[in-house]
Structures are given as structure tokens and as C-alpha cells.
Queue: 2 jobs
Job 1
Amino acid sequence: MTTPAPGTPAPDTTAAPGGEPRDGGPSPGARVLGWARRIVLSTPVLAIGGALVLTTLVMLAVGVDPSLAYPALLRGALADGNLEYTIAAFVPTLGMALAFAIPLRACEFNLGGDGQMAIGGVTAAAIALHLPMVAGVAVVLPLAAAALAGGLVAGLSAPLRTRLGIPAIVTTLLISTPAVAFASYLVRFPLGEQGTGIAQTPPLPDATHLPALAGSSYVTIGLPLIALLTVAWLYADSRTVLGYEIRATGQNRDFARYGGVAVNRLAAVTLAGGGAFAGLVGALIVLGPPYRYVDGALTAPGYTFTAVAAVLLATARPIAVPFAVALLTVLQVGGQGMEREAGVPSQLTQIVQGLIIVIVAVFATVRHLRARRGAGA
Amino acid sequence: MNIFEASFLAAVLTATTPVVLAALGGLICQVAGVFNIALEGQLLWGAFTAVVFSHLTGSAWAGVVGAMIVTLVYAAVLSLASVTFRADPIVVAVGTNLLALGLTAFLMRQIFGSGGTYSSPDLAGLPTLAELGLDVPVLGSQSPLVLLAFVLVAVVGWWLRRTRSGLRLRGIGQHQAAAAALGLKVGGYRHGVVLAAGALCGLAGAQLALGNVTLFSEGMSAGRGWVAVVAVMLGGVLPWRVLLACLLFGVAEAVGFRLQGVGLPQQAADSAPYVITLFALILAGVAARRRPKEIS
């Protein structure tokens, strides 16, 4: 890798307002205009805009009317009955975003979220079904075990990366396929509900159900839990020694090593940490409605890659991750509404996500090169 | 189970061929110093376009050529972004892989009217070598692309070793700045290999969708592009070693398929190729660690 990944922490450039004299006291109007310019021309806005333009072209090329599709998409995500569902989908997507973002800060790619999530989910289901549950820890234990299991699955990639030099992007993906298959085997046979012919576990005992938030049937305490953990990550990333060392490793591995950072240990910590979030997401899905592990229900909605697109869209600003996740969740959930209402295949949202990633990658480097050229001149 | 049975060897060849073709694309990129992980998406895209062109024209060969051309054009996204705009090829490839998954599933519904799997008696598959007059055991049941894949392994090996452009390509991979200083157009060579890898993935996809079977199903590349990436990591820049790595995958898939017939769960059979590929990667890594470091 010769060019820095756009996900790696960029030098903090936010301190310099774009092109404005610092102490000249520009008129408020000019300042607002300057901010507007900076926002409109920022990489994420350009990437979303570009992706939507290209997607519209795809729609027109195959004879879909965008003026029907886009409103249907928005209604599908934000209309009264659907908003709750969008919020429910936001939780796993944000969790998977952390699963990808945490290792990415150390420049490790974790694309094996599906496998880590499936193993986490099946672990949670197995514990909820087969361990006698004490009230109180009945929810906590499966969640913790799932996080541990997801962390272990992702952690397998760490020694392969640090001792054998095999990129994590390859090993996480290669481990993911068998991991998903293994979870699928478990819910079909040893853990499966007998006599139904459907690949799912029996309903989990009531004590292990995640409490729903007041007045909602889909949104559980998973939402505040993930929100809390996200805040903890944001704090750890920007304000702690560990976060600093991770960022230093991501920016320049050799320099960090020279500075005394245990870079190999950090690779393991970040990969396992990311995997723990993926495992936790698996448990949150399984312990939430419909309160069982249904084969394919974890991986089919595509949380993992929606999250990857969101994290890359956030262009190395951790604070932007929740917002990017919210945006892409709206797109993803809205896509299903669009399919129901306007008959446009929901895979359209995958196209938008792919385009966003490509465009962000291009803009991030072009800007980086231009900034370097500007600095050199 | 007799592993020297003709039908078993045929199954190995069938499973190996798409991976070998994609891996050759990855190999030439590797030689030029480009880490190409976009093979998975391009393989899928090749399979889809092969079926679309075969469906539209009624000719399997039109499907093959169409898949090569369209996938080459698709690879131009990667080549433009990563070579011209110097974007991170890994991130761009993650994007194009996802894009291929979305586009093929979306267009499938628009063109064939349904998702999941498309197959039809009208869909022209590739002929077997036996039908073309080469009726020999094992190979006879294969498509001509299987033979072509093995020929291409030899051709790429010869090209890299024995020709001027092959030497230059290796030079670019070994020391980009030195190659540029000698006046080589580094960007041009890199564009060339990324696009050629696209065409090879188109060929691989055509073999997968019109040779191995005659259908398209969503996500049918099913990780083969990633296995090809691993094959290149295992084989380095030597085509015959990459071929061996791909054969390992082919054997694993064929054995898994056989064992499924005697009661192995389908999930285990599906995972076998990935688990075995991973173990090969680990063993190769351990072996490389044991070897004394080269003096550089």
C-alpha cells in the first residue's frame, strides 16, 4: 500500500478555516458562505451526490422512473410506521460500523463482519437456550459471551497478520465464509427447532429477551447500549493513550513502532475489539424480536457492507460515523420500501453504497495529493 | 471414493478453471506491483454479462466475448481510480466488489424479471471439447476454456520470463522509481495489467456461468475471486505455483462435493475450499518465516 487509505486518520486539518483570513474578521455573510462552500464541496457530500447521480442514470437506463423511486425510498424509511424499523436497523449497522472502524484506525481491514456476527449470534442463542438463567444476568451473559466469541473469531486474523504477514482483509474474509456456514449448521441441527423444517432455533426463554424501549415493538435497549459504546469509542479514540497509539500505528506503523508502541499487540487489540462489536451485534439481533436465531436473518440485510460504506464515507472522522450510518441506514431500509411500493429492486441501495466507496476513495486521494502539492509549493 | 476416477479429475478441473483464470489476472497485477482484490466482483460481473449476452444472442461464444469486453470496461473503474487518480486500490476494490454485487442483482431483476437464480433451456452453454471433436477422457467433458486456461498459464509464464514487455513489467513491480527513471511508462503498464485482469475475470466468469453450469445466480462467484487473490499470495509471481494453489482449491471443492454425497453436511462441504486455502496460506507463511531472509 503506497497511498494512505482514506480511512486512516488524516492530519487534523479542521483547525484551518478554508481560505479565510484568521484574524481579518470576515463579514458574517462571507463566513456563512465559506462554511456552505466547505460543506458542499466536502468529500462526503460530493460522494453522496455523485453516487446518487450515477444511480439515477442506472435507473433511467433500465427504465425506472426516479421521480417515483426516490420518494418511495424516503417514505419507506421515514414514514410513520417505518421510522421505527429504520431505527431498529440503525443499531446493528452502527455496531458493524464500529466493527470495521476500530481496526481501520490501525489500518487493518476487517471485512469478516458477517462471520463474527453469525458466531456471536449463535453463541448468544446457545447460551440463552441451554444455560439455566438467573434473572438479571440473563441478558448480560449471552451478550458478553457473543462479544467474546466475535472477538475471538476476528482475533484469529491478528497473528496471521503480525507473524505471517497475511493481510487481515484476506484472512477476515476467508474465515467469514466458514464461520457463517458453521453457525448455519448449528441452527439447523444441534440447536435447531425440531419438526418445523425451518432453519431456526426455538424461541429463546423470556428472561433473555432484550427489553423493548417504551412504546416500541422493534427498538430494544440495544439502541442506548450501542449509543453508549459508540460514545465510549469516540472518547477512547480521541482522548486516551490507547486511542492515540492506535491512530499513530494507522498513520505510520514504523514510526509508531520506533516510538515504542507495541504495534503487533495493537493489531490484535483492534481486530478483536472490532470482532467483539460484530459478535455483540449478532447477539442484539438474536435476543431482539423475533427472539430466536433465524438462519440468514443476520447476514441477509447486509449490515456489514452498509457499515463499511458508512465508515469510509465518514472519511476518517470518527464523530461522523454515526451520522453516515444513519444516512445509509435510511437508504438501506428505504430501499426495501421502494421495492414494495415502486417495484424497484432494493439492490439499488447496494449500488449506491459501492459507488460511494469508490468516489470517496478517489476524492480522498485527490485532495491528499493536492494538499501535498500545495504544501510543497 | 477413487480420486483417480475420471469424473473426479473432471470435477477438479471444473472447479479450478474459473479460479485459475481470475488468479492469472491477479498475478500479472501482482507482478506490476498492484494488489488487485477486485477479482471477486469482476468474476461475478463476468458471469452475469456472459449469461446476459448468451441470453440475448443465443450464442455462448458471444457470451464469452461480451463478458470479456464488459468486464474489461468494468475494470477500467479500478484502473482509472487507482492508477490515474492514485486512490487506494484496496478501498476502490472493496467498492467495486460491492457495486458488482448490487448491479448484477439489480440488473438481473430488470432483465430477467426475477431474482435468485436464472436458468432457461434457451440459454446457450459452452460446448464440451468432446462435442468439438477432442474426445479424450477427463478433458472431453470440459469446455474449451478449461484447455485455454492451462494454455494461458504457460503463455503468461513465457511472457513474463522471455519477452521484453514481461521483463519491463517485472521491473516495474520490483522498483517502480527505477523503472520510471529508465523511461518506462509505469502508469501505462499498470493500466494494461488491471484491464487485462478484468478481461481474464470476464473469461473466468463466462466459464463459471456457461461452462461449469448454464445459469446465473446472485453472488455465484461465492468467494472464488478471493481464493484467486490467495492463490497469487501463495504462488507469488510464478504462474505454475499459482496454478498449483488453484488446483488445491479445486481438489478441496471436488472432495467436499463428493463427501456431501456420503453424508457430510452441506455447510462443511461449502466451507472446505476456504478452510483448506486458509491452511495453505498459513503453512506457506510459516515456511517463509523459517527460510533465512534474503539479502536485499
Job 2
Amino acid sequence: MTASNSRYDPPANMTDFASIPGQLEAWSDAMSGWVDEMIGQVKQQLPPGAECQFYNLVTNPQPGPFLDQEVIWAGFPKMLRVLYGTEGAFELADNKLYPLTQANDPSRPGFYTGAIWNTLFYRPLDEYCEWRVEKNDAGKIVKVTFTSEPPEYWQALHGDELADVNGVPKYPTIGDPKKVLDLYRELVSPEVTLDDLRCPFDFVDETDPAAPVVVYKKDCYNPYNKWNSTHGIMHLGQPNNSLSAEVGLGALATVIFHGAANDVIVLGEALICAGRLGGPNRTSDPTIASTVNDLARLGAAITLRNPVGLYMDSIDLTGFHDPSGQQVPREFFKVVRGSEQGGLIERAVFEVPKSEGYVVGDITVAGVPIRYGGQIAEHIKVKLVGVGSSIGKYHNASVPAIGQCCVDPSQPLFMRRPSDNAVPCDPTMYHAFAWGGNPQGSIPLPQDHLRAATMKMLATAPRRPRMARYRRR
Amino acid sequence: MMNTPSDLLRQPPKFDAMQRHTGPKIPQAPAEPRLAINDIQGNIFPGFNKPTTYFTAFRIDSVAGAKAWLAEVVPFISTAEEVLAFRRLYSARRKRLGGSKPPDLVDTNTNIGFSQEGLRKLAGTSADEFQDEAFRLGLPERAAHMGDSTSPRDWVIGGPGNIPDILLITGGDDEDILRARVAALTEEAEKRGVVKTWEEVGLVRRDLPGHEHFGFDDGVSQPGPRGTLSDIPDDYFTPRYIDSSQGVESLLYGLPGQDLVWPGEFVFGYPSQGPDPLVAGPVKNTGPAWAANGSYLTFNRLRQDVKAFWTFMTKTAAELAAKPGFEEMTADKLAAHLVGRWKSGAPVARTPNTDDSHLGNDQYANNHFFYGSDTKKAALHGMPGYSNGDPYPDAKSDPLGLTCPLAAHIRKVNTRDVSNDQGGTHATYAIRLLRRGMPFGLPLKDPFGHDPEHGNRGLMWVSYQTSIVNQFEFLRANWMGDSKPPRMPGGDDMIVGLNGRPGEERERTCTIFGSGLQTAAPSTKQQWIFQTGGGYFFSPSITAIREVLAAG
């Protein structure tokens, strides 16, 4: 049996492209191009003689049988919770927008440099699921809109040239700007104009002043337009939440890494750090990478299932109660784009029908009133789908780790994003998973590494007040 | 010559009553905190582990009386030090008796927990400093979130208007002594306006000690709290058995496969789990200062429908056996694959097709398996019979759940070395809890025969942790209660999970694989486990009881 796909289809088989001649082929070419680019990158990392286990299912179909590997993760950003605690994270997730000059990961530099980027904003929601909350005059939530649609889909629908995995425009699309406008007016606001959605001039990244880069050309679609940031939500906006990033992670995670003692790295966080594969503090990247890597270590051929996309798989409404204490029906979570069948949800709205006489903010979850959209998001599972086949076909050797994570004891649960292996951790921090990340590995550690790391941690422990203060008088 | 499994079982346990070096000396080992074992209640760790346990609930009618009673009770509250010392003594004595139980060596242990209302009565507003949302709201408010379909008003204990201020747990080896202890404590309480509202006895199954009523060995996989008992560096609370020649494994596990977890996940005031399991994480600070050395206690009275359970297994196994790839399916095998262990405790990952009671009973082997890569033999420190590892077949890499289904109960609650929907493996450690379950009711010997108990049997399920929301409730609602996490292709935890998702009529289903990668999806709408009582409590330190709760 062979996986036969004549083309890569749009995420969730959405139909917006269908009436645009040549658009489906253009989309497939872009998808196929990203896959091939990433295969090229993987090959550069593999040891001599090794074969890439990640393949293009259109141009290089593989024999079955196939095993779908759905990879799911929690929709609420783990990094916010790690950095700001649950309440702080809920507050920030709903209400804070970051300028593109500032990364939501405090261990990273901003995404772009230049005055224009200070005026463009994104939601700090980096688990491939973003949402926007609407409240009534009483300050209660009435509607929460969720999306997992990638920005590339909207750039393509506008007819822009899609960038390659390095950000250089490469893949032309046909597009239909009127469709973009119609959908925005239907789903976001009737006030939207096409000018609102387009770049009024070239958006230039000046991070390297000697070599400024045009990221979005004049009159192209602006993914950070106000109707997808300050005034509304249409698709994913956090700059790491892209389809090409998904393809990149899926492909690069097929490389098998080893640590200092040549032990193959197994644990998810350690793998992210060693391979510089994304955000170690996320729910998404470590589980995506390590699930793919599990298949790679089994010697499987691996790809992403068509249609490749980022999806909300499902929401678990167990314990969501209306003001009378009754379970709310699942119809309150209404799928607007994509498909509930098979868990290919791209856009959904959580809202109480007016006829019910109450609003979202009157619903309780486990006895706690909904005050934040994040309380709903943490019940959403996000996913992508990989496909494994021909287990045992490949016997690729591992390659040395190329990255590492450091932990600052003042942010004890936060792993600073992987840096180059050649750059040691700051002396005030410790090197996480210096032992390699294989629970059956050897111990390539200096004698005092773990002790010193723990001492750094304990030095930051809070001092306790005296017990006598609490004696009841 | 290779030892046989029965030879190995006769090997003496490695550590004796007065042993202070409970692990191999490994220069690279992390520094671990010294545990205040004379201040921590002993059922938190190491656990009473007694054949009979009384659960007694009280309401405080007189605060002054309660304080006076507590002041008297404090010396009877068993510390971790006392329980551990007795266990070591018992174990050493039993070894000298050739494995027989020492009949004249008995002890009685008492521990105490307080609901938030109970703490308010005794400690005033400082009780409101506990930040755990679940503890503040109480189990009746939270139960539906975990899929429970029962009405808390019908619970025998813990429903609205019936939430105890105090839960006393008293376990003992000698039933007469135990009964007398409970009676004396209760009598003294009632004299002082602390009124008993409920009492029930938990009994280790006399026919199958350690097994719950469905017939499975319970509590095989418990995490091992990190920490030392003294200033001697390798005087560990959780003994370390793996030889340093095994490398990292000797630093990550106590018994083979027993995760070593930083104690702050179980007791307040200690480092908790950090992103790197070998480095201490932050000290949690989510309660009043006097919460140090205390722990949240969750108590759930769960009725088990044994007849329904085995009726399903028998019928479904027969249906599956008619399908290609599942020809060898039996009721026991199906149940084992849904639990992840056979009745003996032997893991399906190591023995996929038949039970192996030697493996199930061998604590040095029954928890030794990984999912993300092939499991290698682990040499044990100073144990000749295990110098080359245990003699059983090793587990093969199984990240996809082709051997042990991803929906198997043990894979739903512990993803071990593979990632999960919360990210990598941090949650694997940070959501662990210490279970202290105890059956109630008499066993049903023939699941299809006459039931003199009319179904009144189940589990007094007790756990200790420092976050009810992130540990107990997370496990029950997110991993056991949801069909998707922690990994797919999974399904519901059919054994313990309760599908409360709207519109699904409580149906539970999962994916299991046949010998040729065929898939099957057993399903049922019938519930096998019912909440019939419970509550959230806090089990304080001895110091906090004496200086805060009992103080006038």
C-alpha cells in the first residue's frame, strides 16, 4: 500500500481556495516546498550515509501500512503559567498584547527591529491556539473566539508570495483579496476595509542595520493588522505560530541526538534543548518533537498527514455548569471553520445563546466562575497529525547535541531557550539536562554539578515567617 | 548459573532496621534536603500499610474543647520517623523469621486531617491563606468536574452539610488494640464537643493482600520522595537500589522504575520538581507558614461494581476473540491490558500475553520498564541475585501503545519517559502523588455469584500532595477523565475514568492493538466506580497541631 496524495490540501480541507483557479496547486507547491526545504536542512544535520526519515508524501510517497500519530497538547500557554503563576497567566493571556519588538519569551530578543514593529502587536499565546475575549458592560465575558488557523493561509488567500522557511518570499499564490475582506467582515467586523488588512508600505526588519530585510511588502496582507490584534482575531498571530514552523519542527525532530556521553536523548525537554527545536517551556514543542523522535528512533518513515495543519482537536466541557448547576451543552462551543469531525477545528466560538438568559461569565468551571478566556482554553486540546510507517527501515546513527538550556534560579521552572552548545550557561544559572536526558544513560557530570545547581536553587527559597504569628488569640 | 524467580524472591531485602546507608555512594548524586521526619505525619510517608484502618470523621462543636482534645491527641499522632522505624524493624524481624510475619510485633498508627472549615475554626483567618482552589471549594463542588455523576447529597460522608471538620485515620496490626485506640480517641473527643459523624473500617483483603476488589495488585508504582533522614549524605528516606554502574538510572530511581521525586511535591516547605529531574526546583509557598511539613489529604470513598466489571470483560473478550489479531483474548487479558498490569501486578509491558506472578511479586522488577526505548537490565547495588539485573523478559520500546495500550490506567496516570500533552516529562514527575488506598467491604469471590454485601465494597482512596488542583484533580479530570490526553491514540481510562463530557452519555472507549496491528475499540456506558463519599483535608505537621491548632 502506498500513501497516494496528488497534492497537499489546505488545512482542514477548507474550501476558500477551491473557486480560485490554480490556488490549490499553488498552496500544495508551497507546502511541498517547505517540506523539501526542511528535508534539506535535516540532511545537513544527519551523519554521513544516513537517510532522511522525513519524506514528502506528494513527490516521494512511501509504502504502508501507516499509523497515524496524533500529537495533542494543552491549549493554554505553559510558559505564561511558569513565569506568572495561574492567576497572572490568565490575566496576561486575555489582556496583554506584545509589540513585535518584544518576545513573549523573556530569554529571547524581539522578533523584529524598527519603528513600525513597535506599532504592531501579537497575542502572547504560543501553543498554536489563540483567543480573544469579549465582555459586556458589566465586565462579564460574553464570547470567546478561538483560532488555530495559520497566517500563511491568509497570506495565500490574499494572493501574496509565501516565504520559504528562512523568511524569503518564494512561493507565489493566486488569491482573492475580496474573499479575505468578505471573511473578515463576516467573522470579525463589518467595519473592516481592505486597506486595514494591507501593509501601507514595506515593513522592514532592521535587526541587522547593514542588511535590512523587507518582511512584508507594501500592499501585501498584514498578519498583524488591527483586526487580528488590537481590534479582533482572525488567525494565529504569535510569530512562532506558523505552519512552516510546524513542518520545520516535524522534520528536524526526526534527527536523533546524543548527549555528552553518547547516550541517545529521550526525554522531551532535553531533546528540545539539545536539538534547538523550539520552546522548552511549551506544552506543544517538546511533545511534538519527542513524539516524532520516538518514531524516528524506531526507524520509521515519517511525515505529516495531509491535510497538514494545526488544529483544535476538541474541548472537554466536563464540569462547566450554568447558573442553575446544570452541565452546559457542547453546542456552546461552536465550530465556525474547519471540521469538528476528526478534530480539525480551525475557528470556534464559545458563547451562550441569548435565549438562555445568561452569559459565559455566569458559567462556572469546577465551581469557579469564568473570568478569563484561558479558563476555557485550558480545556482545549490542540494537535497535529504525523504518520509513521515502515518501522525498522532506518538505522540512523545519532548526532551530537547542538544546543543547551540554562535555568536561572530566580525563574526556577523556566528553561531559557536553547542556545548554542559552545556558549556555556551564565555562572549564576545551571545547565539543565547536562547529564544528557536519557534515563538509562551514563553520568557524564562533574562531581559537583547537581549539588551546585541545587544549592543555587535553594539560595532563592523564600524565608518563612515565625510560627508564633499564626497562633490564634 | 541464572537464578530462578523463586530463588530471587528468597533473597533478603538489602537494608536492615538500623541501616543508615540506603544507597550506593555516587559522587555525582544531587544534594537532597533533610526531611523533618519527626514532624511529618507518618501516613504521608512512608504510609501506615496496616491490615485494618479506621476512618473516623468529626464535627467541631466546641472550639475550646477541640483544642484541648488535640493537645491530648498530639502524642498519639504517628510521625514519619516512628512509622518508618517500625517498618524497618518489622522487615528485619521478618527476614530473621525466614519470611514469616512476626505475630507479636504490632503497632497502631493515627494521623489526622482537617477540612478548610475545620482549620478556620481552629486557626482563624490563617486557614484562608491556603491558595489551592480545590481545597477552598471542597470536593462536593469539584466532583462533577472530574466526571462524577453521583449527587454529593447521597454520599455517606462529605456531601453538603456533612463535611467533616476532622478526619482521623487510624491503622493497626492488632484489631483489638486498634479498636480500643479508636474508641478511646473518640470518647475523649466527644467529651469535649468534638462529635463523631461517621466511621468506617478499611480492610486489606485477607484472601489477596494488597489487591483491590477487581482483583488487581494496587499501589505497585509509587513515587519515592527524595530527601535524607540525617546529615549522613546517603541516608536516604527512599532507599536506592540501582548500582552506580547503571549511570543516570541510579540517580533517577529508588527501586527500578520508582521515580525519585523532590519532596516539595508531597510536603510543604521542601524543594519541588524542577524542569531537570536531577536538580531541585522551587520551594512551594502556597499556604500559611504553618503548612510546612504538612500535606493535602484527598479522601475518596469509591464503590466498585465487581460484577459489572467482570461481566464486561468476559463478554467483550469473547467478542474480540472472534476477530483477527485478538484470538487469544480472555477476560483476564483484556482487563490486564486496560489496567496495564496483570492481577499479580506484573506489567503488560514486560509480559504482554500471560500473567507472571513471580514478576508481579518482585518489587525489584515489577516497575522496571520504559516506554520510549528498550529497557535494559539494571544491576542492583549489593544484591548478588540482581547483579546482572532481574531474570524476566525486558520491556521493548512502546511509545505508540502497541503492546501496553496508551489508554491503560497505568499509562494514563504516568507517562514515564515519553512526553505528554503538558509538554515533555516534567508533568510526569510533578503530578505524581502518594497513594494510601485501602479496600472496604468484603471481597466478592465469585463475581457472578451471590453477593451478601449487596455491592457495598470498594476503595478508601487516599492521596497526599501539595496541590490538589495540579495533582489529584489534574490526574482525575485531565488524564483519567479525558479521552485524549496524555497521548494518542489513547482513549478513556476505562478502569477509573468517568466520562462526564456532555452529550456522550458516559460512554468510555479506547484503542487496543491486536497481534498484527489490528485495532479494536472496546466500549461501555456502564460505570464500574461510583463516588460515595470523600473530602479534601490538610494533614498538618506535629508542630502546627501543637502550636497553632491546639494552641489556646
